[in-house]
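Researcher: Next entry in the queue.
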Amino acid sequence: MMLDVDDLVVRYGAATALDGVSLTVGDGELVALVGPNGAGKTSLVNAVSRIVRPASGRIVLGGRVAQVPEGRQMFGELSVEDNLRLGAWRHRPKDPTAVYELLPDLQRLRRQRTATLSGGQQQMVAVGRALMAQPDLLVIDELSLGLAPMIAAQLVDHLAELNRSRGTAVLLIEQEIGLAFELCSRAYVLESGQIVAEGTTDALREDPALQAAYFGGFDIAEAED
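Model: Structure for this entry, 225 residues:
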């Protein structure tokens, strides 16, 4: 098992962000965590990455984890290649060749300041920077945030290729349900700090009660056609 979260509780003062959340990601598995703004998705990401300390519960990691943070968090005055190398600050070598092979557009942009890149290009740098840590599990917080649907779909294709070629597991935290279900075979639905549904994306996609209750009646299957 690459990630095992059991009965996780995260609090900020008197406010409870996560209340008894449990989920798993198997070796080489692609799993989505979906839900609306304020559901607690980023709190879970930060707990897994040890940025916040849970009030209670258990998190067990079966390998190295790297996070692609919400909002990308680039060092804008540094070049693409310098941003990538920062992702390998605990590892040697810091050679980005393997990242360029997976994301060839970054090699063309390697000397450009990241502040001058488009949102999609910056997100690609954020993914590449995380990959420089040679993770077994990639945790991605809001991949599609601020991106055109076509650009987000291209990044999903890159993640699918990463999973096929290297076996890297992915936990994708995402509001765009159709996008998340395109990549992942299994998903959890988070609402108000609690898991309210889980299962294969095929099963969740076909559940009209779930769509009506948590996605405003939005027909995922039709949206993906």
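Model: The beta strands are 3-12, 15-25, 30-34, 56-61, 65-68, 137-141, 169-174, 186-191, 194-200.
Researcher: Noted, moving on.
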